[in-house]
Amino acid sequence: MFTIAETDPALTKDQAKPIEARLRTALLKAQYKRLQQNGRALLVVIAGMDGCGKGAAVSLLNEWMDARHIRTLAFGEPSAEERAQPFFWRYWRRLPPRGRTGIVFGSWYKPLLAEAARKSPNLRKLSALAQEIRRFEETLNDNGVQIVKLWFHLSREAQARRTDQLLADPDTAWQVMPEDIKVRKKFDRLRKAGELAIRLSNDPSRPWQIIPAADPLMRAACTGKAVLAALRTAPARPPALPAAPGGAPVPTVLQDLDYSLSLPQSADYDRELARLQARLAQLTRHDKFRKLPLVLVFEGQDAAGKGGAIRRITHALDARQFHALPIGAPNQYEQAFPYLWRFWQNLPLPGAIAIFDRSWYGRVLVERVEKLCTPAEWRRAYGEINEFESLLRDNGALVLKFWLAVSKEKQLERFHEREQSPFKSFKITPEDWRNREKWDDYLDAANEMFEHTSTDACPWHIFPADDKRYARIKVLQTIVDALEHAMKLRTAP
Q1: In the chain, N or C terminus with fewer CB closer than 10 Å?
Q2: Is 61 buried (19+), middle (13-18) or exposed (0-12) by CB count in 10 A?
Q3: What is the pTM of this model?
Q4: What CATH number corresponds to the domain at position 195?
């Protein structure tokens, strides 16, 4: 794997000069072409032996290209906030927008490399880490982010020689980090770790490219050529997903609900509402809640009462604890990123609550029905969403998903009420009426969504909401029960 790089190939200045001239011109042209076409974002992942000039190579890329459109993303040890979030959170948050380039130091490969470099690496853990990385990169790739992975390598002798040369000159000694010096003592183990990590994480569509790094001129030329080839690469056509089987019955979850369910008396509602709000207030102020991020997702037909249910929840919360997010169509800036990007920006820390009024499920609902994405995109999204929620849960978050369902007749009644009410007239829009015309399409999309994304670990809670009070009590009771279970607390009998 590293045989050629460890021969330490070199270029003379006369050989390198015309190569550099051609590369600089070609890189700028390719960079601007991608910017003008609003093409894919490009992530250049930098990895390899310490002390082999990775930083110098990246500095040259910024010099040869227009640095205004490049983000150099250096990730060191995670901060306290980053440690409290899912592992991939900090990488999602700093993705470059479409057309631009990000150069990543300290990438998501760091845990994989650290485990591979142990004296006795845990092969099961290595396999799990590699699978997580492949899923992450596949999601980015399928959503418009191109990834090129560069591994910088050189021989043991060249690494030691370069380090000694830099240390000998006071003007360059600052470039040498403690880990650069340690490499010579652990070279063989680190070399084997690199080979193992590359084999486990290599993908035909995102292969590792080995950059010979002993000679600065050769290193610069190979780095520039790799980035240029990536910028010039046309996006591959994603594999077509199989069409839905013809004639397969559409689930009828929403059609089968009992929309007549209601609370018998107003007094029952007032009493239960007060009791549940009091219990919710106690739970979210308990010491154990400080370790728990809570994510509440609300979906449902227009006029199903999502806003009213959310207000009954927030009434019991400390305003400093929660963030309620009304999710509409992505704005122009948000459209420059993968569709899950904007949701990664708004995840709660432990002890905080994020309430999504509409959510990432828009991809398989409104975007599907209104044909704002392709069938391949929304079918693929089921798996991407399940993976996203799995990452949240694995990081300790409690994720609760609610669908408030209203009958077609009750929705029409509420639409007319809104039109006639000065207080509620702002809630009714032409879009609501357009959505109503596609009632059956939305019903099919929602039912299919339940089938693919209601998992044992993260089920949908589907409540009929023709009686808003009934739905509100069911939502509150579900949240209280889930919090008590997650915090291992129980209401005294």
Answers
A1: C
A2: buried
A3: 0.91
A4: 3.40.50.300
